[in-house]
Design goal:
The structure is a homodimer. With about 375 residues, chain A is α/β, with parallel strands linked by helices. Chain A folds into 2 domains: about 190 residues, Rossmann fold, CATH 3.40.50.1970; about 190 residues, Dehydroquinate synthase-like - alpha domain (Dehydroquinate synthase-like, alpha domain, Up-down Bundle), CATH 1.20.1090. Helix content of chain A is about 45%, strand content about 20%. In chain A, the strands form 4 sheets. In chain A, strands 2-3-11-8-7-5-6 form a 7-stranded mixed β-sheet, with helices on both faces. A two-stranded antiparallel sheet of chain A has the order 1-4. In chain A, about 50% of the residues are buried.
């Protein structure tokens, strides 16, 4: 089941189509990256969907912008559409039930395919519905935000939030295909674009020092939505993520590095109420906290901490947690995070830019003390 | 993670412990079958659970009978207990949330293990919670009904019902171990015992003619709860099921045979309201319907149909669908069943006792006509 870009297309936009493969044996798939892939000018065909019925799941913000374009691309395929409300606060069991209801009311069978058109919330919840409807059906990711294109649409993590913790209910379920149309990034508001850049920066911090260096100089172009720069950022991010996912699909080891900034970040998101801080914003602040704590432990040089903080500032991202959050609240929220193992807190920390590692059994008393001091400043 | 029966135990009940292996590469596990495995007399030890925290999930009927025994066996392990209401009508999203809430409120992490103590409903919903909590944690099945011991606890099908269809939400998630204590069958009421026998008979019908022959003579002993006969029935059923599951874990082919009687049966269960007909009762009637329709198609000899009907009667099981159910209602409910493929109804039918097969693209008009006539009699 693949979307095939037509190499003979006369459209100039097709000259820059990139393919990134996620190698996972029989669950392998491709990420197609390019500008105007969904537009009328693009000439792609959907192959191998066979007689599969499609349900496009999108939200009320994305639908007016891209639903019609996607439907044009799917011409000839039987499809229905479900439009959900927009926002992280809807990534829950009630919204999930709307997808199940639509599938059952319209009698979608096991051979059906879900198509997630939207950002990370739409991708996560639609993917989870695909993972669990009739014990698993196919799905395709069509991410329309930078964050979804560089992170959440790739790697098969699907799920919903619980009032007591983010992404606590979920499943590993790989998509059959990811179509990242960088032209959709033109409609993102600045805040969403910056939030997506947080995850882009993350790949540099984890294990890609050259990419971090490129970002230091390319950030102004990215913020100005230079399509070539954005496409390159998406491509490198997807390649970096695909390599980690291929090595450790179910997060038994290395994949945990992708959680850099996420344990602090999830605490901020949960404490502030889903949707008030964007995921990328919380992760940006979380990465600064991880870097600062790494420095406190004597692991990360002051100069690297400064570069990281400067990068977030340049990207217009917050570097300070919300003033109302106390160290105790941080610790309580972090204790339920999935990164906890056998009751001991694990954190992704940094020994340098491009050198993240998983710290097992973090000294919670020390972390609490340090957080208290950090937050008091 | 295994329960190890202690070969040096002085308990006489241990002389008849049987082990059946389910071979699924890294997801392989054992089914331990024996009498009084959970009792004080049994001397088993839990190995390899390490520091895993356990949450025992059971219901208000089973808890007073077996919870304390199980807890004795788990002495030394950190465990909590959650007691759910009893009944198929609680196999839904709301009850599932009670498990998630307990796990999150008590901060169970990814290394935790769920223990399902009860019948098929407890096993299915607990297994599904294990499949989806933090994207998947371990679980152990401790089935206490005949139906759960011979069928639902083995093979990794987990899930919940939706108002529009049974088991429509779910996941494949194999347990780490199944402990089938046949002594628990003493507390089953007769109706539950008979319902369980329906699934036992199913294995004979699918591909085990000798077992069907044994059942014809052993049925009186089984109904009188002869422990040796029951243990043998559980063992052969588990072996038959394990062989099918090992060959086709995710029901791409052969495993569909295990659905003999289930498409008709699910229609009865859904139409009558979950919990009014027991699953095994509905499946028994469904198997008679499948046999009768096979006979109508000229596939199954009259003599075999009579033997099958006689077996159900001898087991005290219903052979007639509820009088209020019309052919149209049957067809409507069967259309949403998971066995539907690319919009075409599939049914497991019989060419003989011990010779089931999957009929693709059943002629729905013919089936509807035949059902109309059958129900009118």
């Amino acid at each position: 089941m693949t979307f095939i870009a037509d190499a003979n297309s006369s459209s100039k936009t097709h000259s820059t189509i990139k393919m990134v493969d996620v190698s996972l044996a029989e669950r392998s798939y491709s990420i197609i990256i390019g500008s105007d892939l969904l537009g009328k000018g693009a000439s792609y065909s959907v192959a191998d969907l066979g007689k599969s019925r499609l349900l496009i799941v999108t939200n009320s913000t994305v639908a007016p912008l891209y639903l019609e374009k996607l439907q044009q691309g799917l011409e000839g395929y039987s499809h229905d559409t479900l439009i959900l409300p927009d926002g992280e606060q809807y990534k829950n069991g009630e919204t999930l039930n709307l997808i199940y209801d639509a599938l059952l009311q319209k009698r979608f069978d096991r051979g059906s395919t879900l198509v997630a058109l939207g950002g990370g919330v739409i991708g996560d919840i639609t993917g989870y519905a695909a993972a669990t409807y009739q014990r698993g059906i196919d799905f395709i990711q069509v991410p329309t935000t930078l964050l979804a294109q560089v992170d959440s649409s790739v790697g098969g993590k699907t799920g919903i939030n619980h009032p007591l913790g983010k992404n606590m209910i979920g499943a590993f379920h790989q998509p059959k295909l990811v179509i990242a149309d960088t032209a959709t990034l033109n409609s993102l508001d600045d805040r969403q674009l910056r939030a997506g850049l947080a995850e882009v920066i993350k790949y540099g911090l984890i294990d890609d020092l050259p990419f971090f260096g490129w970002l230091e100089s390319a950030l102004p172009q990215l913020l100005q939505r230079d399509m070539t720069a954005l496409a390159y950022a998406v491509e490198v991010s997807c390649k970096d993520k695909a390599a980690v996912v291929a090595a450790d699909e179910r997060e038994a080891g290395k994949r945990a590095l992708l959680n850099l900034g996420h344990t602090f970040g999830h605490a901020i998101e949960t404490a502030m109420g889903y949707g008030n801080w964007l995921h990328g914003e919380a992760v940006a602040t979380g990465m600064v906290l991880a870097a600062a704590y790494s420095h406190h432990l004597g692991l990360l040089p002051q100069s690297d901490l400064q570069k990281i903080t400067a990068m977030m500032v340049a990207a217009g991202l917050a570097t300070q947690p919300p003033a109302e959050l106390t160290a105790d609240q941080f610790m309580a929220h972090m204790a339920v995070d999935k990164k906890v193992k056998a009751g001991r807190l694990r954190l992704v920390l940094l020994k340098g830019i491009g050198h993240a590692f998983v710290a097992e059994a973090v000294d919670e008393a020390d972390l609490r003390r340090w957080l208290g001091g950090y937050l008091a400043v």
